[in-house]
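Exercise 7b. Backbone tokens:
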């Protein structure tokens, strides 16, 4: 039952932790052992792979297991928690069960009983996600996992694929991932960005360009919402003739529906290009992915830009979680590079990442502003949990769908 399961163990006692680690690994589990609440918080929020269960001692040196669980539950659904408690902590453990924790065991416990309780809360595996053979591309959220599934599907299909998303959402990375996972990976990957081409027709159709050099590979046309009418007509004609031997992937922002409604983009061409449609939600609706991306970039950039920095503070991660990120991943990278240049402490702090907040530090947030900020965090978490389905998110938040839509418009989340 525990073979190849990913378990997070949060236990500060060296003897207890080592004993549990050894036994769980003998059972075939992959175990991440952490001794502090603050480190466990980051590891569980942005895991390197899906977490099957968390084993957590209620007493921790920098907080408690109850605080850890409550903080995670504030912004999403935590993995199944099995708490370890002394006899004096049973009341607290029962309170945690009522709050959504899975189970608890009391010290001292029989190892066989412990393993049985742990096995019961590890859900049976249905259809596993695709084993892509690559590291995560966009994050750890449900929305990011759905995109990975669509990528895997597109990689097995030779039909045209359309990737839609705002700035900095990784559309070019998705196109490259589809190519790298497909049978065409050894053939050319040709990129044409129409926003940067003075002559779009030449870029796509001239000898030595676009379709002429793609052969059996992949032609990726970015910014198709900028495609001129005459070029749209010529591309549609080419698709009608079979399109050649290569595979076509296109990408655009979130403006294509409006262009089609205004008859500035061919609806017929759209349907031909969107045989597989991969929508990429904005980073503002995927707070866990924003923190995950910040951590990934920190590991890559900090050794060169700020080698003395030990990590990202929990407060900084929380600030990243509630920021809108209108510039997407590009903004995360730009803010991090600037923050690494000015950071003076051992940990990256919110003021390093968001220096504009310093000017507001003497101002107390109004109750209305605090309420609005809290609502925004909950709405983003609900949308992330339901993959952007407004109706399902409204049910989670226990409000009417129209009420949620109105709040999303007011908060700039629509």
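Sequence design result:
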């Amino acid at each position: 039952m525990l073979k190849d399961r990913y378990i997070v163990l949060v236990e500060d006692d060296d003897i207890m932790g080592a004993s549990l680690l050894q036994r769980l690994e003998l059972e075939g589990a992959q175990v991440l052992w952490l001794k502090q609440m603050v480190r466990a918080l980051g590891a569980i929020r942005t895991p390197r792979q899906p977490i099957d269960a968390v084993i957590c001692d209620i007493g921790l040196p920098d907080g408690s297991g109850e605080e850890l669980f409550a903080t995670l539950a504030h912004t999403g659904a935590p993995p199944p928690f099995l708490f370890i408690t002394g006899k004096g902590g049973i009341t607290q453990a029962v309170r945690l069960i009522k709050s959504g924790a899975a189970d608890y065991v009391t010290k001292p416990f029989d190892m066989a009983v412990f393993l049985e309780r742990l096995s019961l809360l590890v859900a049976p595996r249905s259809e596993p996600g695709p084993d892509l053979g690559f590291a995560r591309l966009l994050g750890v959220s449900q929305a990011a996992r759905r995109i990975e599934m669509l990528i895997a599907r597109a990689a097995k299909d030779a039909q045209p694929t359309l990737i839609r998303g705002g700035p900095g959402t990784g559309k070019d990375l998705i196109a490259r991932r589809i190519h790298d996972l497909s049978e065409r990976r050894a053939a050319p990957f040709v990129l044409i960005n129409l926003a940067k081409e003075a002559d779009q027709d030449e870029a796509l159709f001239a000898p030595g360009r676009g379709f002429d050099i793609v052969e059996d590979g992949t032609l990726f046309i970015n910014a198709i919402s900028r495609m001129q009418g005459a070029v749209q007509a010529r591309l549609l004609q080419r698709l009608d003739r079979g399109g050649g031997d290569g595979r076509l992937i296109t990408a655009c922002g979130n403006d294509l529906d409006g262009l089609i409604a205004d008859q500035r983009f061919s609806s017929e061409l759209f349907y031909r290009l969107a045989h597989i449609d991969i929508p990429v939600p904005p980073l503002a609706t995927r707070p866990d992915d924003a923190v995950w991306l910040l951590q990934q970039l920190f590991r890559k950039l900090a050794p060169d830009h700020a080698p003395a920095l030990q990590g990202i503070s929990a407060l900084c991660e929380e600030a990243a979680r509630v920021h809108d990120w209108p510039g997407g991943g590009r903004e995360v990278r730009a803010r991090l590079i600037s923050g690494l240049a000015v950071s003076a402490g051992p940990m990256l702090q919110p003021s390093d990442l968001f220096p504009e907040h310093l000017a507001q530090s003497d101002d107390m947030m109004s109750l209305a502003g605090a309420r609005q900020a809290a609502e925004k965090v909950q709405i983003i978490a609900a949308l992330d949990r339901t993959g952007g389905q407004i109706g399902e998110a409204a049910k989670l938040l226990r409000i009417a769908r129209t009420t949620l839509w109105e709040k999303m418009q007011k908060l700039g989340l629509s």
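Instructor comment: The two ends are 42 Å apart (CA to CA). The CA atoms of residues 161 and 341 lie 40 Å apart.
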